[in-house]
Write a structure and sequence with these properties.
- The protein has 163 residues and is an alpha+beta fold.
- It has a single domain, classed as Heat Shock Protein 90, CATH 3.30.565.10.
- It has 5 helices and 6 strands, in the order H-H-E-E-H-H-H-E-E-E-E.
- Strands 1-2-6-3-4-5 form a 6-stranded antiparallel beta sheet.
- The longest helix is centred in the N-terminal third of the chain and has 21 residues.
- The radius of gyration is 16 Å and the shape is globular.
């Protein structure tokens, strides 16, 4: 995961990403990919830049997916009633599937990185729960079941020379 994050860092520097986007994307990628690997299964990581030609919002999209048990199963000791409850619980400081008091700060750290960079967003789909973080607020839904966990983060910023 560190190698992928380091490559992302270099690529973002090459396209002159603003410092807060650079820092936020690196923090989000390393934390989410490590979480997927530790709590899920083999995971898949994708980073893609968008020129904004069609959407008018150039930037960076990160996506991490795994086929693990999901948030509700991982955090069953907290007795969440729904998958959405479990995802929201995971954002609280000190909440960890391991029970280790020194862990459980990762998603809270991700939330702060998303909130710091204007226009960024984070979406988490875990089995039948969906939570989105944008403009320092959560939007939540229960929906159709999917196999595993899919997380996407978006950092909008203008850049040159990337197609």
């Amino acid at each position: 995961m560190e190698v992928a994050a380091d490559r992302l860092w270099v690529m973002l520097q090459e396209i002159r990403a603003p410092g807060p986007a650079l820092d936020g994307a690196y923090d989000v990628l390393t934390e989410l990919a490590n979480n997927a690997w530790q709590h899920g299964s083999d995971c898949y990581v994708i980073a893609q830049t968008h020129t904004g030609e069609l959407s008018n919002t150039p930037g960076l999209q990160l996506a991490i997916a795994d086929f693990g048990a999901g948030f509700r199963t991982s955090l069953s000791s907290y007795r969440p009633e729904t998958e959405v409850d479990a995802i929201l619980k995971a954002f609280e400081e000190g909440v960890s599937a391991t029970g280790d008091r020194l862990r459980g700060y990762g998603l809270n750290h991700v939330q702060r990185a998303i909130d710091r960079y204007e226009g960024s967003s984070l979406s988490i789909i875990s089995h039948n729960g969906w939570v989105q973080r944008r403009r320092s607020e959560f939007d939540c839904r229960q929906g159709h079941d999917c196999a595993g966990v899919f997380i996407a983060a978006y950092f909008p910023f203008p850049f040159e020379g990337v197609t």
